[in-house]
Amino acid sequence: MNNILTKICEDKKLEIEILKKKCSLKSLKKLVSDKIIKRDFKSDILNSSVEKKNFIIGEIKKASPSAGEIINNYEPVEIAKIYERAGAKAISILTEKNYFKGEIDHLSFIKNKTNIPILRKDFIIDEYQIYESKVYQADVILLIVSVLSDDQLKKFLEIANDLNLDCIIETHNEHEIKRALKLNYPILGINNRNLKNLKTDINNSASLFTSIGKDCTVIAESGIKSSDDIKMYNDLGIFNFLIGESILRSNDYSTFIKKLLDHDQSLR
């Protein structure tokens, strides 16, 4: 790790230490309830790949280190409702506050106003955040291979499983994919954006996809801007996408998502 990714994780560690002083891990665990409704992400996305139906995870974020402020009048709940109506199958919400201007309570706000799975997108480096994700009603969490050791990845997957949380194991290069595959978890994200220097290459997912067996469902992440991009991935056998900035920068979220899904209709 270096550059921006290192700084984000260093700041995240300090943030978690402050949170633990306000509410210890032991106290946080007591807030986990069987009454928290879990929406099934894992089965839906695995089935989507088998059936070759495009599955868009619509991402919501106010800002990012690469793009700066994306939305001035930020209303994440309203955006989520538009995404769902337009055909997105899940919603990714940035909860990192220093660099993405997110808030963790947006998870529960959106959960209460939508009917599709909610992914907590953040830099998870401590088990505390996994319990926190459950308490705030996330259905899915992101585990980034480049910021976690093999032991952490294994441990965090076990905790997520115990809490009935689905996961996306995010990778960026061949070495990270090899590490991820050892976990035997069926959902693998390939980020087209290098989190260390923030450069994006839409062909990254395409070139790395060939090294992954059919037992694993792949999600292409970042840089996807058109139905032509979707078609290129479909031709390779990728049907799952995490898309944020291109939707958020469009003039009409709903129309943009529907245009991305138009190619999906031509497959049938």
Provide the descriptors you would attach to this structure in a database record.
268 residues; alpha/beta; TIM Barrel; 8-stranded parallel β-barrel; two-stranded antiparallel ribbon; 10 strands; 44% helix
Concise account of the structure shown:
With 268 residues, the chain is α/β, with parallel strands linked by helices. It has helices at 3-22, 25-30, 42-51, 76-86, 105-111, 127-135, 150-162, 174-181, 203-209, 227-236, 245-248, 253-266, and strands spanning 55-60, 63-64, 68-69, 90-94, 118-121, 140-144, 166-171, 187-191, 217-221, 240-243.
What can you see in these coordinates?
The protein is α/β, with parallel strands linked by helices and 268 residues long. The protein has a single domain (3-29, 38-266), classed as Alpha-Beta Barrel (TIM Barrel). The protein has twelve helices and ten strands. The protein has helices at residues 3-22, 25-30, 42-51, 76-86, 105-111, 127-135, 150-162, 174-181, 203-209, 227-236, 245-248, 253-266, and strands at 55-60, 63-64, 68-69, 90-94, 118-121, 140-144, 166-171, 187-191, 217-221, 240-243. Strands 1-4-5-6-7-8-9-10 form an eight-stranded parallel β-barrel, surrounded by six helices. Strands 2-3 form a two-stranded antiparallel ribbon. The longest helix is centred in the first third of the chain and has 20 residues, at 3-22. The radius of gyration is 17 Å and the shape is globular. The chain starts with a helix and ends with a helix. 41% of the residues are buried.
